[in-house]
Design goal:
The complex is a heterotrimer of chains A (about 625), B (about 325) and C (about 325). Chain B is an all-alpha fold. Chain B is built from ten helices and no strands. The radius of gyration of chain C is 24 Å and the shape is flat. The termini of chain C are close together.
Chain lengths: ~625, ~325, ~325
């Protein structure tokens, strides 16, 4: 500000004359206008965006790269959305630290003799954020709504349901058409209040709601503020039945890339960095104020092929565009031989991962295929040769059998995940070594979702967070999930059959055998190639926070868990743990510095001009 | 980002043509050739005296040599699957410019980058100069409604912010070197057109043009034999400056992720460095090497261009 | 020609250019973009719209009509402010998204331009006047070097130095998240703190333009006859400078401000990306990644219209300051 006033004076002194006066007036007018605009805009924006100042609060800020698109609990896709919903809403059963089903809103359960009826005891001390008490009829209403409206996202959590009723406020009765333990997997469905659900006429109506404002759940936090693309804020629910959190505010902050997240953590702008890049994670090890935690894998990263055919209803209805080779099992097998997972784990993930095989990675359910495909480009070449993919025009790229379309695949990687981009580069080179060309494109998740819905791709890289119970993950490979959750629109009636059977399995051993079988089928058919199981890398300011609980208790991860293990336990290490301000030197220090420089410059100039005048 | 020089207050540069010493040549072509040679000699003498221009030329020659070397050099160093070096290593004897996050030598990447960056810069400039000169010449020479229409088109081109247009075109037409070159060419020609038109207008007014016309010279003859040679010096000076802009444009487009993912240009290296968290991990060599090269090459072209400008425009020449 | 005629002529020209822009914009994003606009709305989760809403939008934007019909619809919509919906922002109107991001960019651009203009012009005058001096040569070299630098690279290096190494300034973003707890002064300081490095980057990047232009046009003017005359008459050097040279040399610089806006914009986009500064530049980048064509179309329109307006203003200001132009 000082600078402009002084500049104006300088201008005034140098120029004279008619035109100059005009110029001057113009210049002065422009400058004043600009200054006014600047001040007005920053103050105006301030008035608009900052709610009334609050008292000293304990705020816990998490930084992430993925952005949230909607907080509607029935229609989410992205992980930050789920992370948030986990705080606001609850599922009716929870998980303990070893991922076993444990009581939540339902405290006790029993299955009838014939196996066709489950009875749950619902707690009486849970309340909704709007003050209404939670009753069994809310749970029944949520489940019935999903069944009635056919909410594809969740329907596979409620198989063989005959009827779900709430005979009284604390009892839920779930009748099934065949014995199944599906009700205690448990279903990962957020319970919504009956009095809110009933306001919406149909699924489309409800879907239009973005989940905010007016998010009413039973969870330990309430969603209170959302600056799209920037951050969203949750406030503690002091009446939470499990005990009030030790944090007053939970903030999610979106960053453009991993780098800025880690920088922000180091400078104290945020308290917790979720899903940290491998290289950046390593660089945090030496920082004394930060604890970097490496947890057991919950994510796998896969490369999916477009498996759409006209036999699959959604594909037929929506249409699809894919290279003919993707539906050839020999082609996919050759591709798997051409990929060196060990190199990717070592060079892309820097050892913070394990080579992937089957789609279920939790130790309790994981199946190790007896014949694992390892990196063997010669074998890949042999398979492609035998299948008839010859390079007839000698340009280094094979063509379809009979000299048709060249093997040029459209390959999509995600900008939100730089690892996928690097892995993509490796895969591109390996594939070209065996005569397969790729057109690689990096897009963001929003665009990839569109592409996936339109079935307009050949291959892409994405990932899954796999639940403790394999039911959901396995459901995504069934035919009916095409257009809802299915990565590839893979369709195999034998698999679909087995899926239903495992939901009806009489004993745990029976179920395990079926789940093993299903994993093997998926491995052999390879609609997608599981590239790696990703260790969950997280880091936080251990000089400010303590109380993190690992899940599983040995070598587990520390936040965004199944159940509120860390969440209700973390607390500041000292009184002054408020965060949120960006680090660095306070603004008035450098502003003062600038002002000082300007003053000195003016003095020097004035003195020099005076001597000029005297000399002239 | 630079602004193409508007050549404020452009006046006709006088391309003085001296009589060559020695026995007079016999044919018109011979005469023309002698004149051109002496003009070039005079030009080179002037250029030689300009320290800035010479420095620029020297730097540019260095990079051209590097680029030519890159064409014949082994490219496997840029492949990610064959990278064997230590990751993110600072410059050392083995790796003079350090390595990137996959262990590739930054020196190799930078050398290969020179080739692509210069190629894109020169190709895009060729397009710019062709379109710009053609439009400027025709508009200036023809005048009338042709001029009006072409000038409106040029104004329209000048008004569209180049990066926004480039982004739009690239995101619609895909990511390849060809698209990038085309896009840069299409967004940069208007300023050249303006310049060439101004020059053409002033050359058009000269007495010998009128004389030639009176003698019955055709339009084609006038343009190619008289106007073009006199506009050429300005075009040349402008070309050099446009290359600088083209290189910077490619860098910006690559950084935003619109570049060709398969070619290594300096802009691409910067993009990879940015994605690979180079700033946070302290890999200053990864960011520094391509950046410094860009600055040097663009500086070289700019200095040469300014030197040419001074020669071609007598008004700003040192007295 | 007279003032009125000149002004009118310039306005008409601006209008013609605007029409050309509209046509081009329409073709670029509606006709040539991959995937036709109708399917863009109707398929995919892009806008997360219900079928009823999609149908409504299709009718609203006349996407079921012929190309000519669509064009007239498009023009009508544009003038009434209906610029489509953003697929990335889940069906939020482009106009609303755009307005949210506008202010931060204005703040950034205006501040940087003013600083670089003042510093650049002052240096240019000093340099041109004392040609060949140490000041001239050193500022020339410095300006050339910064002129040749990609501004986002400069931003990254500044980030490396001031944020990573020295930790003097925040890493990026526009404001901190504890914004609600700050007083107005605190808020102002917070914004300034985040603004420092981006403004520094843009200012340094563009000081060179103004410097070089001012210097070169001053030198042009100094070569004129009337300067020689004034000197021969014995007019003191300082008056020669102030009354004659600078006054005339400043005129082209005025034009430069307007035209440079297009290039400043290019710089703003990349610099906002480097600093994760939530403005229109970052928005453009997000739209590119998300292939959000309607948002891109709206941004394109805004930037070009702004350029047209700037050019028009600069033409008119030029006329105001230099009567010769009007009477030409």
């Amino acid at each position: 500000m000082l600078a402009f006033g002084l500049a104006e004076r300088l201008v005034k002194d140098r120029f004279e004359g008619g035109t100059m006066r005009r110029m001057l007036k113009l210049g002065a007018a422009l400058t004043t206008l600009a200054m006014a605009a600047m001040i007005a805009s920053s103050v105006g924006a301030g008035a608009q965006e900052s709610p009334a100042p609050a008292d000293e609060k304990v705020t816990f800020t998490v930084g992430m790269v993925n952005d949230a698109i909607t907080f509607n609990p029935m229609f989410m896709i992205e992980s930050p959305e789920y992370a948030t919903a986990d705080l606001v809403y609850e599922t009716f059963l929870s998980w303990d630290e070893e991922f076993n089903t444990s009581p939540g809103l339902a405290t006790d359960w029993v299955q009838s003799e014939d196996g066709l009826e489950w009875t749950f005891q619902i707690r009486d001390d849970a309340t909704w954020h709007d003050g209404e008490p939670l009753t069994a009829s809310d749970i029944a209403a949520t489940f019935n709504w999903i069944i009635d409206e056919g909410v594809g996202n969740f329907i596979d959590y409620l198989p063989f349901t005959d009827e779900i009723t709430a005979p009284d406020e604390t009892t839920l009765v779930w009748k099934t058409t065949t014995p199944t333990s599906a009700p205690i997997y448990p279903p990962y469905i957020y319970i919504l209040p009956e009095h809110v659900l009933s306001q919406y006429e149909d699924k489309a109506d409800f879907r239009a709601w973005k989940g905010f404002p007016d998010a009413v759940g039973t969870g330990p936090f309430e969603l209170v503020e959302w600056e799209r693309g920037d951050f969203w804020r949750l406030e503690a629910n002091p009446d939470y039945w499990g005990g009030a959190p030790h944090i007053d505010e939970f903030v999610f902050r979106v960053f453009q890339n991993q780098e800025t997240v880690v920088q922000a953590l180091k400078q104290g702008e945020i308290d917790f960095a979720d899903d940290v890049d491998a290289a950046l994670f390593d660089s945090l090890e030496s920082d004394p104020t930060i604890t970097a935690n490496e947890g057991a894998p919950v994510y796998f990263i896969q490369m999916s092929f477009n498996m759409c055919t006209n036999d699959v209803p959604y594909c037929k209805k929506t249409g699809f565009v894919r290279h003919p080779a993707t539906t050839d099992p020999q082609f996919r097998l050759a591709v798997e031989y051409a990929i060196d997972r060990d190199v990717i784990v070592d060079r892309v993930k820097l050892g913070h991962a394990t080579p992937g095989s089957t789609v279920i990675m939790q130790p309790k359910w994981h199946h190790d295929p007896p014949d694992v495909i390892t990196y063997d480009p010669e074998e890949a070449n042999r398979i492609l040769d035998e299948a008839g993919y010859a390079d007839t025009d000698n340009d280094g790229i094979r063509e379809m059998p009979g000299g048709g379309e060249p093997l040029e695949m459209r390959f999509i990687v995600r900008t939100e995940n730089p690892d996928s981009i690097t892995a993509g580069e490796f895969i591109t080179e390996w594939l070209s070594d065996v005569g397969i060309a790729t057109n690689t494109e990096a897009v963001n998740d929003s665009k990839l979702t569109d592409i996936w819905y339109a079935n307009d791709y050949d291959m892409y890289i994405w990932g899954w967070g796999v639940e403790p119970d394999p039911n959901f993950q396995l459901s995504t490979y069934t035919t009916s999930q095409c257009g809802i959750w299915s990565d590839t629109c893979y369709s195999n009636s034998e698999y679909d059959q087995l899926f239903q059977e495992q939901q009806r399995a009489a004993s745990l051993e029976d179920r395990q055998a079926l789940v093993d079988q299903m994993q093997q089928i998926l491995y052999d058919d390879r609609p997608e190639i599981v590239l790696w199981y990703e260790n969950y890398l997280q880091a936080y300011r251990s000089d400010r926070w303590t109380g993190f609980v690992e899940q599983p208790s040995e070598g587990g991860y520390i936040l965004f868990q199944y159940g509120y293990h860390s969440l209700l336990n973390i607390r500041p290490t000292s009184e002054s743990a408020t965060t949120g301000d960006s680090g660095g030197i306070p603004a008035f220090v450098w502003l003062g510095g600038v002002a000082l420089v300007v003053v000195i410059a003016v003095v020097v100039l004035a003195r020099r001009r005076r001597s000029e005048e005297e000399g002239a | 980002m630079q602004i193409p020089p508007l050549h404020v207050g452009a006046e006709a540069p006088v391309a003085h043509v001296e009589e060559a010493p020695g026995p007079p040549p016999s044919s018109p072509r011979g005469i023309r050739w002698m004149r051109r040679k002496s003009a070039l000699r005079r030009f080179w003498n002037a250029f030689r005296r300009d320290a800035m221009g010479l420095t620029g030329l020297f730097i540019l020659t260095f990079f051209v040599v590097v680029a030519i070397f890159a064409i014949f050099a082994d490219k496997t160093g840029t492949e990610i699957t064959s990278a064997t070096g230590p990751r993110l290593a600072a410059p050392s004897f083995d790796y003079p410019l350090g390595t990137d996050n996959q262990g590739r030598s930054v020196l190799t990447l930078t050398i290969q980058g020179a080739k692509v960056s210069l190629l894109v810069g020169l190709s895009a400039t060729a397009i710019t100069m062709l379109i710009g000169s053609a439009v400027g010449l025709v508009a200036g020479f023809r005048g009338g409604w042709v001029d009006q229409v072409l000038m409106r088109v040029t104004d329209w081109g000048l008004v569209i912010p180049w990066l926004v247009l480039a982004i739009s075109l690239a995101s619609i037409f895909g990511q390849s070197l060809a698209v990038i070159i085309l896009v840069i060419g299409l967004t940069t020609w208007p300023s050249t057109a303006r310049l060439v038109r101004a020059q053409t207008l002033s050359v058009k007014e000269r007495p010998y043009i009128e004389r030639a016309r009176a003698l019955g010279a055709s339009d084609w003859h006038l343009v190619t034999r008289h106007i073009l040679p006199n506009v050429m010096p300005v075009i040349m000076a402008n070309t050099v400056l446009i290359v600088a802009i083209a290189i910077l444009s490619e860098t910006a487009l690559s950084f935003l992720g619109l570049g060709d993912p398969f070619s290594i240009s300096w802009g691409q290296i910067l993009e990879q460095a940015s994605n690979g968290a180079a700033a946070t991990l302290g890999a200053w060599w990864w960011l520094g090497a391509p950046g410094v090269c860009i600055v040097l090459v663009v500086l070289a072209f700019t200095m040469i261009g300014f030197a040419l400008d001074e020669i071609v425009n007598p008004k700003i020449r040192q007295r | 020609m007279g003032t009125r005629q000149y002004v009118l002529k310039k306005i008409v020209q601006a209008f013609v250019t605007l029409v050309a822009i509209l046509v081009f914009n329409f073709f670029l994003f509606r006709v040539w973009s991959p995937g036709d606009p109708v399917s863009f709305l109707t398929r995919g989760q892009g806008a997360r719209l219900t079928p009823a809403e999609r149908q409504e939008l299709i009718q609203e934007y006349g996407l079921d009509k012929s190309t000519w019909g669509q064009f007239t619809e498009y023009v009508g919509d544009t003038f009434s402010g209906r610029l489509g919906v953003s697929s990335f922002y889940q069906g939020e109107p482009v106009r609303d998204v755009f307005l949210r991001f506008l202010r931060p960019t204005l703040l950034l651009v205006v501040t940087s331009t003013i600083f670089s203009m003042i510093i650049g012009v002052w240096m240019g005058i000093r340099s041109g006047w004392r040609r060949g001096s140490l000041f001239d040569r050193s500022s020339m070299v410095t300006s050339l070097v910064f002129y040749s630098m990609p501004e986002f690279w400069l931003g990254m290096m500044l980030l490396l130095l001031f944020s990573t190494t020295l930790q003097w300034f925040p890493v990026g973003g526009r404001i901190s998240t504890n914004v609600s707890e700050l007083s107005t002064l605190g808020y102002f300081l917070d914004v300034a703190n985040h603004l420092f490095l981006p403004v520094l980057t843009l200012t340094v990047a563009y000081v060179g333009e103004f410097y070089l232009a001012m210097r070169s046009s001053l030198l042009d003017v100094l070569g004129e006859d009337y300067i020689t005359t004034a000197r021969a008459k014995g007019v003191p050097e300082r008056f020669v400078l102030n009354r004659h040279a600078v006054r005339n040399a400043l005129l082209p610089t005025v034009t430069l401000v307007a035209l440079s806006f297009g290039y400043v914009l290019g710089g703003v986009i990349t610099v906002e990306v480097v600093f994760s500064y939530q403005g229109l530049g970052l928005l453009t980048y997000t739209a590119i990644l998300g292939k959000d064509y309607w948002l891109l179309q709206g941004l394109f329109l805004f930037f070009t219209v702004a350029m047209i307006v700037f050019n028009l203003i600069s033409d008119l200001v030029y006329a105001y300051l230099d009567p010769r132009v009007r009477e030409a």
